[in-house]
Amino acid sequence: LDPLGRPGRLQMGDLVFLSAPNNPKQIVHVWLYAGDDALIEALRLRPEFAAAHNALGQLAEQDGDLAAAQAWYASAQALEPFNPKFLRHLAQAYRRLQQPAAAARVLEDLLTVSPQDSDARYQLGVLQLQANRVESALHNFQQAVNQAPRDVMAWNGLGLAYARMGRLDDAAKALDHALTLEPGWNCSAERTA
After folding, report:
1. CA angle at residue 62 from 17 to 42, to 5 degrees?
2. What's the pTM?
3. Is the model more confident about 160 or about 51?
């Protein structure tokens, strides 16, 4: 079934708009199946259509054009500044573009909107650890393990932050806990950084 519940599959190039029930002319979602041309057409009709900006960012990222992806994600985020998905995509683009300070600012914005987002806390902790902001990283890793106690990566980050602070007993406990969650886990700085 396609997203509208009809038999069949959508193919690249199919443009699917779902309308708000109270206003059938208002476009509220576009599916990524659309492809670049259809999304550009959607933006020509409605330039403030943030989901289309975000979808174009995803397509650009899939094509390996990270600078274009970042620009599309930034324009989506400018249109909907508090959309967690747009913030997450923008932070990811900045990280992949090796712009950690920009990624950290966006993750901080994301945590303002979604304070319980353990993955954002983990990602911010990684960036802070890389920037040698160890106490801030420790705080975010602690929050991440509190919010997602089965997250091996968060426990790994917590252990690395403790190790950086010279708290080797705490580091060993955190890394051991990661191993109890996932035996054979390779606890290493390379996996977190």
Report:
1. 25
2. 0.76
3. 160
